[in-house]
Every structure is written in structure tokens, then in C-alpha cells.
Specification:
Order of helices and strands: EEEHEHEEEEEHEH
Number of strands: 10
Distance between the termini: 21 Å
Largest sheet: 4 strands, mixed
Shape: globular
Helix content: 25-40%
């Protein structure tokens, strides 16, 4: 059975239609109205080997905040729905990914205990026209709504664009690892408690 989810969410600030397939091949069709976010989510999709389709509109005439945060919420909800049956999964994932001079580490647990540790100081407040602080907002919204414990640390790097690329690639790789089915577990829940 393919693990997938479809989320539709409308507020006075955003209107989002998002489809996610965990067992994909890295296909991305992403239109949020925020080009830098689109770019990051393509990287996440390709390196996580997910399939992701997003059509989003938002009040970007104000700024990108609502759209970025709400896409994070919807992606988290979709991830949680798609992973509603945790039987047999690896559960934990880790990746250390370089992007030129930048090196980022991501460690995560599909524990249903949402938490974000984010130690990624960026060298400037803007990456092109994108507010760099929104990266953390997106990741927090994703982690809280997906129910994932995520630790992200910049090991070193100078270029904000490179650092963000490494963050999203590492997150995709770590999630791919954590969602992989381990045949040795058969249908077991990956917890000594028998539940997540």
C-alpha cells in the first residue's frame, strides 16, 4: 500500500492544496508563490525520494510569512497522515550533508513527540528577497504538525543559500531513512513500549 496524503486548508491568509507520497521517486510540482521556498521544497522532495504536489496562494503582498508557515503546517499534516501506520518503519534518521562550504547535520525521530532544535545561524537576514528567519518558522510548523523530533545543526558554512540547501537536503535524506520499512521488524511498532 502506498503511503500518501492529501491536505486542503483555507484560511483568510492562505489557500493550500497539497499532495504527498512517501513512497515516491522525487517528483516535485510546487507552486507556493514564494520562489525560494519552492526551490527548497524541490530539494527536499528529490533527496527524500518523495512525490510532492503543492498549489498555494497567500497574502504575499504583505510578506511571505503566512504562506511559508502554512505550507509547513500542511506538509506536516500530510506527513503525519501518510505515516499514520508506523509498523515496520526504521523510525530514526540522520544525515550530514555538504553544500560547497556549508555542512549541516539533521537527526530525527518519528516519535509523535514534536520538537525542533534549530542551531543554524545564517549570515544575513535576507537570501535574495526571502526573509531568512522564515526557514525556522517553516521547519517548526512542519515538526509540530508532523509529530517529529528534529535536531538541525549547522556544522560550518558562510553562504546563506548554501546553508539552507544543505538543511533541506539533509532533512529529506533523514526522513527517507526514517520512513524506510525494515523487513526484520515485520509488522512491529518500532518502540519497546509497543506504541508511538
Amino acid at each position: 500500500m502506498t503511503r500518501s496524503a492529501h491536505i486542503k486548508r483555507s484560511t483568510r491568509e492562505t489557500d493550500i492544496d497539497l499532495k504527498l507520497c512517501i513512497d515516491g521517486s522525487g517528483k516535485a510540482r510546487i507552486r507556493t508563490g514564494v520562489p525560494f521556498l519552492d526551490h527548497m521544497l524541490v530539494l527536499w522532495t528529490v533527496h527524500g525520494l518523495f512525490d510532492l504536489d503543492i498549489e498555494a496562494t497567500g497574502d504575499i503582498e504583505i510578506d511571505d510569512h503566512h504562506t511559508v508557515e502554512d505550507v509547513g503546517i500542511c506538509l506536516g499534516l500530510a506527513f503525519r497522515d501518510a505515516m499514520s501506520d508506523p509498523k515496520g518503519i526504521t523510525r530514526y534518521g540522520s544525515a550530514v550533508i555538504p553544500m560547497d562550504e556549508a555542512l549541516v547535520q539533521v537527526d530525527l525521530d518519528l516519535s509523535r513527540r514534536p520538537f525542533l532544535y534549530y542551531d543554524v545561524p545564517l549570515p544575513s537576514g535576507k537570501i535574495g528577497t526571502f526573509d531568512a528567519e522564515l526557514v525556522e518558522e517553516f521547519l517548526r510548523a512542519f515538526a509540530m504538525n508532523a509529530g517529529i523530533t528534529i535536531h538541525i545543526k549547522l556544522l560550518h558554512g558562510k553562504n546563506g543559500h548554501h546553508i539552507c540547501e544543505a538543511v533541506f537536503k539533509a532533512l529529506g535524506r533523514a526522513l527517507d531513512q526514517a520512513t524506510t520499512i525494515d523487513k526484520r521488524r515485520a509488522d512491529a511498532i518500532p518502540s519497546s513500549k509497543g506504541a508511538l
